[in-house]
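Please fill in the sequence for the structure shown.

STRUCTURE ENCODING:
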């Protein structure tokens, strides 16, 4: 098959491109960022630089549409939040190629953490008691009423801007710096004790076709994961299958859970996009799950598979007054890098250039690294130019109540 993968700047997108190509497919990469590492892998048949999804949505969609026509693309596979911008032209793009993604309203319902909580509560799935703040006063009142709380924006990602009074991130974000609005609310939840685990799944028309659950032994500054280990995903699969079936979902879908001593897995949030689980899934399994799913089969990963992002681990080794240096070098010799065995050096060069660029941007604008990296391929619930009336009405209909 001929495949177009977008947002090739992300580390997991590079893995996606390599794995789809190594399974025998012709893969083209696209991003609005010229230095995107995934655009420079030898596994890509070629790459395109597009317009910005956020800043010039119509031109971006037109670029993708044109590429699909020029290269006779069989399947468009978005990998990050550019999916939302593409989904505002879902019917139009469906005429150009097959889409491994869901319509905008399905994606928005999952990405908006408030509406996601409504969905999973209605399905009877385990999730913390959740409240929604739409003003500074409501946020402060809710935080004062919950002894141990955990709060974040309804539209957020990558462990960014987490407001809590419990755990290692307590006090990292000041409540004075958080400003909920009706259009951009914040969720306040009871803090759930236990380790966080993540999942990545692929789905077609309401059926899960691949599934991986993993823990993150190491993070970049308590936010973005840089080291991953697969786990038994049986329990999480049962939960996710209910959500996927309810929505008739197609595309990548990822979840965060907390493992509690008494009740097992508790749902925290959903990311309807690729996450680092694709680093662990095998090439053949991932490609079949996305492009050629077999009826009744779910591709999975055995427990104990480990992988890491060596460049990020090395960078982390020299952070925080070299505190992580001894452990980092031990892990660099013991755990394989995501690029191990691919014999594909160019993305490493572009990853170093991109990391330096994004790190400078994050320091200059006082942002976390993942925020700078996501840049204009992220979507935070703001109006999208060219959105149709039905999607506008859906966004306006999302209820903001004090309890989700």
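FILLED IN BY: designer on duty
SEQUENCE:
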């Amino acid at each position: 098959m001929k495949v177009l993968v977008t947002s090739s700047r992300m580390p997991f997108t590079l893995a996606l491109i390599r794995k789809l190509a190594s399974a025998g497919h012709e893969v083209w990469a696209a991003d609005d960022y010229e230095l995107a590492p995934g655009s420079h892998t030898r596994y890509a048949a070629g790459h395109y630089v597009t317009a910005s999804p956020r800043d010039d949505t119509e031109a971006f969609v037109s670029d993708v549409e044109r590429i699909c026509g020029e290269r006779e693309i069989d399947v468009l596979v978005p990998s990050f939040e550019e999916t939302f911008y593409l989904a505002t032209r879902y019917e139009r793009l469906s005429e150009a190629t097959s889409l491994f993604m869901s319509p905008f309203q399905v994606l928005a319902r999952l990405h908006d953490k408030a509406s996601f909580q409504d969905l999973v509560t209605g399905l009877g799935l385990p999730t913390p008691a959740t409240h929604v703040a739409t003003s500074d006063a409501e946020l402060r009142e809710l935080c004062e009423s919950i002894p141990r709380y955990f709060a974040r924006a309804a539209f957020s990602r990558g462990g960014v801007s987490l407001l809590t009074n419990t755990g290692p991130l307590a006090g990292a974000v000041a409540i004075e710096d958080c400003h909920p609005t009706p259009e951009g609310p914040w969720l306040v939840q009871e803090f759930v004790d236990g380790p966080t685990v993540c999942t990545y799944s692929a789905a077609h028309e309401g059926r899960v076709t691949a599934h991986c659950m993993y823990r993150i032994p190491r993070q970049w500054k308590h936010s973005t994961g840089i080291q991953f280990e697969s786990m038994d995903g049986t329990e999480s699969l049962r939960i996710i299958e209910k959500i996927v079936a309810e929505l008739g979902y197609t595309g990548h879908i990822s979840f965060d859970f907390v493992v509690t001593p008494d009740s097992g897995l508790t749902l925290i949030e959903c990311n309807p996009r690729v996450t680092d689980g694709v680093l662990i899934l095998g090439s053949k399994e991932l490609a079949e799950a996305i492009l050629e799913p077999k009826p009744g089969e779910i591709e999975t990963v055995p427990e104990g598979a480990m992988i890491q992002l060596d460049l990020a681990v090395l960078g982390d080794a020299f952070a925080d007054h070299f505190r992580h240096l001894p452990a980092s070098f031990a892990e660099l010799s013991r755990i394989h890098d995501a690029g191990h065995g691919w014999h594909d050096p160019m993305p490493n060069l572009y990853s170093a250039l991109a990391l330096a660029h994004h790190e400078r941007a994050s320091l200059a604008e006082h942002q976390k690294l993942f925020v700078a990296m996501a840049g204009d391929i992220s979507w935070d619930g703001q109006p999208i130019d060219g959105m149709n009336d039905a999607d506008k009405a859906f966004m306006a209909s999302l209820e903001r109540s004090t309890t989700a």
